[in-house]
Design goal:
With 433 residues, this protein is an alpha+beta fold. The chain has one domain (2-432): Orthogonal Bundle (Cytochrome p450). It is built from 19 helices and twelve strands. The chain has helices at 2-6, 8-19, 38-47, 56-60, 62-65, 74-84, 90-110, 119-136, 144-155, 161-168, 171-179, 183-209, 216-225, 232-263, 265-279, 293-305, 337-340, 360-363, 384-401, and strands at 22-27, 30-35, 52-54, 116-118, 312-316, 320-322, 325-327, 332-335, 402-406, 414-416, 420-422, 427-432. The strands form four sheets. It has a five-stranded mixed β-sheet with strand order 1-2-8-5-3. Strands 4-12-9 form a three-stranded antiparallel β-sheet. Strands 6-7 form a two-stranded antiparallel ribbon. A hairpin with a 2-residue loop joins strand 6 and strand 7 (325-327). Helix 8 (119-136) packs antiparallel against helix 14 (232-263), helix 10 (161-168) crosses helix 11 (171-179) and helix 14 crosses helix 19. The N and C termini lie far apart (48 Å).
């Protein structure tokens, strides 16, 4: 059973080919309905969303994220989203663009011709620095190694049977495991404590500074002072959710993008031509975003093939019909971006890396939910516009100066855990343009 969960992406792909868009299976105590047709996805996420709540997986993730936006439900979730939404307003995130480019420029300057490194780890440090500065008003680069280690331990829950039971089953089994001093359990708790210590330190530093600002952490603390009812723990829950989600997914998306560019040099050449025409020798700015249209298409196509969030889950609150298929009360519904994004009905030659798919005329022919890297409906990723801007600006900044090539013999494989990380990292060599 554990092996099936660890290979969920392969399981869904195989079963979808065999049984079609909608089918049901059982894994231990879990009843799972898979819904991988765009019409069904629209109903679950939008038109019939009131019939669903977050999948039980998210309930157990509260052990890490608490009652943050990703895990909370109902009126509490709506209240917190209304509080945080203004931080991601278009007029504000434009201010973050310059800092994104400054960090990207700094990182590309420390690279040198012939250098070899794990690109995924490098991008994790870069996006961590960006999120720390833009959303928390803090320098967290010194914490990059600790955060990376903690995240690796937490994502390793899928590889440890004891941790798997602890996080995803809960109940008496979890309480029993928590009392047993197993090395994996101790490592997991230390990782959570490590992230907590960082977030509470940032809260203390921001409060001690007493200055104004437009960043997320200042807004959360200001709302607390104005009587929002948030405790320090609630501030922590929202902060850690945005902190982790805000850098992990962008780093994953950019890692796969550079991997694809290394394998498709004709696409890379076209990308470089756009960067040369639009930017010349200067760094990009927010004002360049509309003109970097091919750069956006490259990122869009990369997230089609390798969506950082590769699956969404919901749980039926009552019996509900979805696309002509009855979903029983209590059943989990899984919708996989990875599977849908590679469906040949919507994307001919689906495994081919082709940014031209994102020409407006071609895009208009496809169903709305044939592409949903940020989810959809009222719970669509609150940082979607932030992520698009960050992804495009960092891709342009780094690709403007460097080509990246996969180290010969490096093994590339999927690691479908909470995000779609490269299982063995991404060892690449830097080459000047």
């Amino acid at each position: 059973m554990l092996g099936q969960f660890r290979d969920e992406i392969g399981l869904q792909s195989r079963l979808t080919r065999e049984y079609g868009d909608t089918f049901r299976y059982k894994v231990g105590p879990f009843r799972v309905t898979v819904a991988n047709h765009p019409d069904a996805i629209e109903q679950v996420l939008v038109s019939k969303s009131r019939n669903f709540k977050k999948d039980p997986f998210y309930e157990q993730m509260k052990r890490i994220l608490g009652e943050g936006l990703l895990t909370s439900e109902g009126e509490f979730h709506k209240l917190q989203r209304r509080l945080i939404q203004p931080i991601f307003h278009h007029s504000l995130i434009k201010e973050y663009g310059q800092e994104m480019v400054e960090f990207g420029g700094r990182y590309r300057e420390r690279w040198h011709d012939g250098q070899t490194f794990d690109l995924h780890q490098e991008l994790m440090q870069l996006t961590l620095a960006v999120v720390g500065k833009t959303l928390f008003g803090a320098d967290v680069e010194r914490d990059a190694a600790d955060v990376g280690e903690a995240l690796g331990t937490i994502l390793g829950v899928f590889d440890e049977p004891a941790l798997f039971l602890l996080i995803f089953f809960g109940g008496p089994a979890a309480r029993l495991i928590e009392r047993v001093p197993l090395p994996a359990v101790r490592r997991f708790q230390r990782a959570v404590d490590q992230l907590d210590a960082l977030i509470f330190r940032l809260i203390a530093e921001k409060r001690a500074a007493g200055a104004g600002g437009s960043d997320l952490l200042f807004r959360l603390l200001h709302a607390q002072e104005e009587g929002s009812g948030m405790s320090d723990q609630q501030v922590r829950d929202e902060a850690i959710t945005i902190f982790l989600a805000g850098h992990e997914t962008t780093a994953v998306a950019l890692t796969w993008t550079f991997y694809l560019l290394a394998r498709h040099t004709q696409v890379e050449e076209k990308l470089h031509a756009e960067l040369d025409e639009v930017l010349g020798d200067r760094l990009p700015t927010v004002e360049d975003l509309d003109r970097l249209s091919y750069t956006r298409k490259v990122l869009s196509e990369s997230m089609r093939l390798y969506p950082p969030a590769w699956e969404i889950g919901r749980q039926a609150l009552s019996d509900v019909e979805i696309n002509g298929y009855l979903i029983p009360e209590g059943s989990s519904v899984l919708m996989s971006q990875f599977v849908v994004h590679r469906d040949p009905r919507w994307y001919p030659e689906p495994r081919r890396f082709d940014p031209e798919r994102w020409e407006p005329a071609a895009e208009a022919t496809r169903p709305r939910y044939s592409y949903f890297p940020f989810g959809g409906g009222s719970r669509i990723c609150i940082g979607e516009s932030f992520a698009w801007m960050e992804g495009i600006l960092l891709l342009a900044t780094l690709a403007q100066r460097w080509r990246l090539r996969l180290v010969p013999g490096h093994r590339v494989a999927l690691d479908p855990k909470i995000t779609l990380r490269p299982k063995y990292g991404m060892r690449m060599t830097v080459a000047g343009r």
